[in-house]
Design brief:
The protein has 53 residues and is mostly helical. The chain is 92% helix and 0% strand. The protein is rod-shaped.
């Protein structure tokens, strides 16, 4: 049992997958934030245009 736990802690293949998953999730969150900000700015732009018509 001890050797199984020791081998699990020394394994590095899973760490790469976790790092890639974290990197992809951070990129995804940045994209979501950018799209949200563009939506807010677009709504404000069209509200301003419609109020001046």
């Amino acid at each position: 049992m001890t050797s199984l736990l020791w081998r699990f802690f020394l394994e590095e293949r899973g760490a790469d997958a976790v790092e890639y998953a974290l990197l992809i999730s951070l990129i995804f969150l940045a994209i979501i934030g950018a799209v949200h900000q563009m939506a807010i700015k677009g709504t404000a732009l069209w509200t301003n245009v419609s109020s001046h018509i």
